[in-house]
Design a protein that fits this description.
- With 345 residues, this protein is an alpha+beta fold.
- It has 3 domains: 2-129 and 309-344, 2-Layer Sandwich (Nucleotidyltransferase, domain 5); 134-173 and 249-306, ATPase, nucleotide binding domain (Nucleotidyltransferase, domain 5); 175-244, Alpha-Beta Complex (Actin, Chain A, domain 4).
- Helix content is 41%, strand content 27%.
- The chain has 12 helices and 19 strands.
- The strands form 5 sheets. It has a 6-stranded mixed sheet, with helices on both faces. A 5-stranded mixed sheet has the order 13-12-11-17-18, sandwiched between helices. A 3-stranded antiparallel sheet has the order 5-4-6.
- Helix 9 (287-295) links the parallel strand 17 and strand 18 (299-301).
- Helix 2 (70-85) packs across helix 3.
- The longest helix is centred in the C-terminal third of the chain and has 25 residues, at 237-261.
- The two termini are 35 Å apart.
- Bound molecules: adenosine-5'-triphosphate and magnesium ion (MG).
- The site of adenosine-5'-triphosphate (ATP) has 24 residues, from helix 5 and helix 6.
């Protein structure tokens, strides 16, 4: 059995070879504050965000695309592998996708904990590679291609040629940062505090990377910053745009920076092919047009952008030669035993 896990900052996608995507779960866990025991994981915890009693702590084990709590990641992988494999005796091969910004040490640690959590062998894949494959890009081409994955914690931009990543840059401006910007704006300009889930609703429903005509508005609940009383207010698309504008510019700058670093031949290829956007954040209204204006390049959003990475892991399962070409290798329990022995020498 082969399982793919897209370990994202906001969501975890599960892919099973032969079945496709079998689950999409929020990257959160609830732990008992007193004992540290994990009580619940994933979607059932999501609605508790900002509403949890003191006895429960809500943990986001990935922050800004970096793993901040390995024990929760371990609990999550173990839970999902068990759920997918049931009582099967043969341990699965697990492909795990991590943001490109994860360090070598963290990568080793993730592999170790995936094996401890029940994988027979585990292989780590960089997010931009999986995203590009899942977006339907043909990476075997000699021509350079550019993909930008705008997730919750990070925006990963990469240029590919002949199946491998040539340039990869990662920035911390993505979905979460846009929500924080909306929260800050409403506190500053409207004297209202709103929770994280509300900020996300504003972003998804009326948020935009270019001004909307006509302007849209939605009713929102929050808390007065002054009296601390609950309040209702209407937030407009213009306000959401103004709140996010600076961060959106930073995303455009990240892409422009990668284009500037790209050697001329490949830059010419990208000029022909345009830019492909993946990740949930690519769904922000007007983003592709805004990036097109900022870079002068055709920009398209991949179909089902939030699922590209998981689909890309599925493609890698079917094309093991791509793993070799990108120097990805499976690690097994034995390798890790050897690694541990060498470390202890
Ligand atoms: N319609 C929408 N408009 C704007 N943003 C959206 C929309 N739908 C989802 N998002 C945002 O997409 C982000 C999640 O995308 P995705 O699932 O690709 O992230 P992730 O893989 O968990 O994060 P990362 O890759 O950074 O670790 C969230 O910030 C979410 O609010
Ligand atoms: Mg992601």
């Amino acid at each position: 059995m082969q399982i793919g896990i897209d370990l994202g900052t906001t969501s975890i996608l599960l892919y099973v070879k032969g079945k496709g995507i079998v689950g999409r779960e929020a990257s959160v866990a609830a732990i008992e504050t007193a004992t540290g025991d994990v009580l619940a994981i994933g979607n059932e915890v999501y609605q508790m965000v900002g509403r949890n009693p003191d006895s429960l702590e809500i943990i986001h084990p990935m922050r800004d695309g970096v793993i901040s709590d390995f024990s929760i990641i371990y609990a999550m992988i173990e839970h999902y592998v068990k759920k997918i494999c049931g009582k099967r005796l043969l341990k699965p091969s697990v492909f795990i996708c991590t943001p490109a910004s994860v360090t070598e040490l963290e990568r080793s640690a993730i592999l170790e904990l995936a094996i401890a959590a029940g994988a027979g062998r585990a292989c780590l894949v960089d997010e931009p590679l999986a995203a590009a494959l899942g977006a339907g890009m043909d990476l075997s081409l000699t021509a350079g291609q550019l993909v930008a994955d705008i997730g919750g914690g990070t925006t990963d931009v990469a240029v590919f040629t002949m199946g491998s990543i040539t340039i990869a840059r990662s920035g911390k401006v993505a979905g979460n940062a846009l929500e924080d910007a909306i929260t800050r704006y409403l506190r500053r300009e409207r004297n209202v505090l709103v929770g994280r889930l509300t900020a996300e609703e504003i972003k998804k429903q009326i948020g935009c990377a270019q001004l909307r005509h006509p302007e849209l508005g939605i009713p929102v609940r929050g808390q007065s910053y002054i009296s601390r009383m609950p309040v209702k207010l209407e937030v407009t698309s213009t306000e959401a745009y103004l709140a996010m504008r600076e961060h959106l510019r930073e995303i455009a700058e990240l892409i422009r920076g990668v284009l500037e670093e790209t050697p001329p031949e490949m830059a010419g290829d990208i000029f022909e092919q345009g830019i492909t956007l993946t990740g949930g954040g690519a769904q922000l209204q007007g983003l592709s047009q805004m990036l097109k204006d900022a870079t002068g390049l055709e920009t398209r959003v991949a179909p089902n952008p939030a699922f590209c990475v998981a689909h890309g892991l599925g493609i890698l399962m079917d094309k093991p030669e791509l793993l070799r070409e990108n120097n990805y290798a499976f690690r097994t329990d034995d390798d890790i035993g050897e690694f541990e022995r060498n470390r202890n020498l």
